[in-house]
Amino acid sequence: EADIYQTPRYLVIGTGKKITLECSQTMGHDKMYWYQQDPGMELHLIHYSYGVNSTEKGDLSSESTVSRIRTEHFPLTLESARPSHTSQYLCASSRDTSYEQYFGPGTRLTVT
Amino acid sequence: GIQVEQSPPDLILQEGANSTLRCNFSDSVNNLQWFHQNPWGQLINLFYIPSGTKQNGRLSATTVATERYSLLYISSSQTTDSGVYFCAVEHNDYKLSFGAGTTVTVRA
After folding, report:
1. Per-residue pLDDT for chain B (108 aa), expressed as one digit of tens each?
2. Contact status of A30 with chain B (Cβ, < 8 Å)
């Protein structure tokens, strides 16, 4: 069973605020990913990491940034939130590429 | 990038019915996963199945990699099976590409 956690689960915040979405996994997985999903739509990869100090942008352009200082932790930061950032953000991890990805419960972000 | 098409987009079932969901993809794949997204947004892993056939209770899946499709079978559907089912594939770029999903509604 995968152990991957995201906090907060829900967040309502005003325009211009800085926010950090947390993602942690206890499986020792090297590969971690952030996806963005609008209601009823498919998931789009926005960031990924192959290990500590490795971060790459995904297929969907995003104004967010990520860091990977520790294997188990992959936070996502928005410096100045806007209503267009309203979405669900899902974190995932895997033992290696081409291996099964496991997802956290997601963070539903609303920017007013 | 690789294209992933899921059909049908929507499916309404009576409790107890069987159904088949399809996933077509445009290139060879190293990874293929089926997920169920529950009403709270959580993605639940159903199958990791880049090829072959697997079964887990009332669910089973088959991937025919040479013909570039995968099928997810739901037998004796229950109301708890409702939700969105996603197929996701990885070609050779180490990233999962998702289909648009099939929304399943099981009525009691």
Report:
1. 899 999 999 999 999 999 999 999 999 998 999 999 988 888 999 999 999 999 999 999 999 999 999 999 999 999 999 999 999 999 877 788 999 999 999 999
2. no
Q: Using the beta-carbon criterion (under 8 Å), do B100 and A2 form an inter-chain contact?
A: no
Judge contact between B7 and B56, C-beta under 8 A: no
The CATH superfamily label for domain A4-111 reads Immunoglobulins (2.60.40.10)
Q: Which residue has the tokens 């987009």?
A: B9
CA angle B74, A104, A79 (to 5 degrees): 135
Q: Provide the edge-to-edge strand list for the sheet that holds B59-64.
A: B4-7, B19-25, B69-74, B59-64, B52-56
Contacts of A44 in chain B (CB under 8 A): 98
Listed by start position, the domains of chain A span 4-111
